[in-house]
Amino acid sequence: MNRLAGWAARHPRRATAAKAAFAVALLCLVGFEGISLARRPSQPHAVVLASGVAVCLCAVPYSWIPLTVRATAAVAVSWTTSVVLMAGPHPSVVWGMGEDIALLVLLTAVIQRSPTRVAAVLGPLLAVACLAAPVRDLHPGRFTAVFGTLTAVVTAYSLLLRTQAGQRVRDMAAVRTAERLELARELHDLVAHHVTGIVVQAQAARFTALDGEAAAAAFARIETSAGESLQAMRRLVGILREGDAETEPVAGLPEVRALADSFARTGPPVVLYIEQGMENWIPGEVAAGVHRVVREALTNIRKHAADATAVRIGVRGVPAGVELRIADDGKNAATLSDRARGGGFGLVGLSERAKAMGGLLRAGPAPEGGWEVTALFPVDRPRTA
Fold this sequence. Notes:
Elements: H1 3-10, H2 12-37, H3 43-59, H4 67-87, H5 97-113, H6 116-132, H7 142-207, H8 213-237, H9 253-266, E1 270-274, H10 284-304, E2 311-318, E3 321-328, H11 338-341, H12 346-356, E4 360-365, E5 371-378
Parallel strand pairs: 1-2
Antiparallel strand pairs: 2-3, 3-5, 4-5
């Protein structure tokens, strides 16, 4: 979703008003042209006016009418009008401002947002319609050259934006894949750790005379380790692991505390809250996910919240699992080079990690100001007596 679509989703009433204002502006252009040029109304001028109104209405982004349908209707109306006027009586003078602007709006939308096959067909048709609209008069002049240049510029710029959007989609897919593979490696290490513990405890119970409470405690530890292994294995099965990459120790809540301390030494103070006793029941993969989110969020605060005076990090248990919240009070971004800022895919990878674990992650403005990142990881908490 691009910025314009995101703004429209957040402010539906303003988006509706903007669409109405856009339609009125285009229709005013068509009406101004009709009044200025057709002082003595004639049939050709009436045809031009009707075509302009129809195409302008097609350019308004109605949510209930697909873009392809609106663009196809605009092409049909504009082409039919051009053919009829060029084959029959021409109007004396035609500017084509309103209709051409509407066609350019449809052209850039089709090239950027439509599937490749649709863009390859409708794009050239809209471009030719843009060029044909000002050629309907007896002596095509400056407006033909102006809109010809605009058509070329809009087409080239739209193709560039489409290429960049496609590259970003591929980059996001690569980030998601890399995050899933890293999560698979972490889960692999956790499963190996738990299974090893099960084997060691089973061997100890076999070769040691245990009875009564000691035997029950040993079997309880084996049951707990086996349950955690099964949970991690279920997640691991759903993630495709490619290759045998080297693994690193899985970080957890102690590393979260170390991250907060390290950040506070060189940045704004950090208020860290971790629910008491959480280390005893939080699964290893969830603790690793909390660490990754905190690390990425603190990195983003350094990049994008240069004036932050405080950072709050909270990790607590909720009925649905483990909830994490990182918030800052920054308002102004730091001045960094493009290389230092990175590609902006950190949160994409973290969202994929949370999704793979059955949770979710959100990032956006905090109600009290600044920016916040919230994540929820589902966990079956042990029942307390």
